[in-house]
Write a structure and sequence with these properties.
Largest sheet: 9 strands, mixed
Number of strands: 13
Number of helices: 9
Oligomer: single chain
Distance between the termini: 61 Å
Structural class: alpha/beta
CATH superfamily of the largest domain: Periplasmic binding protein-like II
CATH topology of the largest domain: D-Maltodextrin-Binding Protein, domain 2
Shape: elongated
CATH class of the largest domain: Alpha Beta
Order of helices and strands: HHHEEHEHEEEHEEEEHEHEEH
Length: 301
């Protein structure tokens, strides 16, 4: 006989307190339930139930076996549910949190293709320049750039971006070009307020030394696109990812401030809550983004 069937019959007898109610719960005859339990006891060589004319209760060994058997049965049920869910067509509301600049420039332009591919999914994209609490705030997915702080979340890498110090040619003509990291303290800097480090740039010198530039910014905003616009206007030097500056640099509207500095490469991740399996709508979005960004890289934005 099937071990899971025997386990389920025994566990249901314990749950229901008798063979009659267990048979009703399982939708089989009372004799069939009794046969499964007897076969289990015979195979194990132990009496699992105390049977009287009035009630049925587990023996000491039976109670210990019940605890393990119930866990096995629950795991089996979850495994079945997982397979069913993973084969379901993606559907339902998908709440996505993404930084404003990345969302506007690189996610919103492709959402139409995603929705046409998965018409049963509806998307609520929230542009937010902070790290949201996915579970407590009810998000299914977040797109994050750089080092991941919360290791309890699941993450899948989508692509990479480079960060460089950039400024407009007009700015360098007026204020000169910094030659080394220390020179930055004499320049007008454009800062991003949502950095965990505050108004501090963490840079690497040509020799590999890790440095920090702590200087008040001439302009401080919480949006990367605004910093890029300010840099293009000649207001100062900004430290930006290539997914923002690449087009303006190709057009000659901004230049690298200190070309000798090593380039910092950051990964871009899809982050989602932990769990034994991923909802079809979340998996569909992540697979879609991986496919979309597969030809993107630090120097190809």
């Amino acid at each position: 006989m099937d071990r899971l069937t025997e386990m389920e019959a025994f566990a249901t007898v314990v749950d229901q307190g008798g063979f009659t109610d267990a048979a009703r719960k399982l939708g089989i005859s009372k004799s069939a339930v009794s046969k499964h339990v007897s076969a289990l006891e015979s195979r194990l060589g132990a009496r699992l139930l105390n049977r009287t004319t009035r009630r049925v209760s587990p023996t000491e060994i039976g109670l210990a076996y019940y605890d393990r058997a119930r866990r096995v049965l629950n795991d089996a049920g979850e495994a079945d549910a997982m397979v069913t869910a993973m084969q379901d067509a993606p559907s339902g509301l998908l709440r996505v949190s993404v930084a404003t600049d990345f969302g506007v420039n690189h996610l919103s332009p492709v959402l139409g293709d995603f929705l046409l591919r998965y018409p049963e999914v509806t998307v609520n994209m929230v542009l937010n320049n902070r790290h949201v609490e996915l579970i407590s705030e009810g998000y299914d997915l977040s797109i994050r750039v750089g080092e991941l702080e919360d290791s309890s979340l699941r993450a899948r890498k989508l692509t990479e971006t480079n960060k460089r110090l950039v400024g407009a040619p007009s700015y360098f003509r007026q204020y000169g070009r910094p030659k080394r990291i220390d020179d930055l303290t004499e320049h007008k800097l454009l800062h991003y307020t949502n950095q965990s480090s505050g108004n501090v740039w963490k840079l690497t010198s040509p020799t590999g030394e890790k440095r920090q530039v702590r200087a008040s910014g001439w302009l401080t905003v919480n949006d990367g696109q605004s910093l890029l616009n300010a840099a293009v206007s000649g207001l100062g030097i900004a430290y930006l990812p290539s997914f923002l500056y690449a087009d303006k640099m190709a057009e000659g509207l901004i230049e690298e401030a200190i070309p000798e500095l090593p380039v910092e490469t950051q990964s871009i991740y899809a982050v989602y809550p932990p769990g034994r399996y991923t909802q079809p709508k979340v998996r569909a979005m992540i697979d879609f983004l991986v496919e979309h960004f597969k030809d993107k890289g630090p120097e190809t934005w």
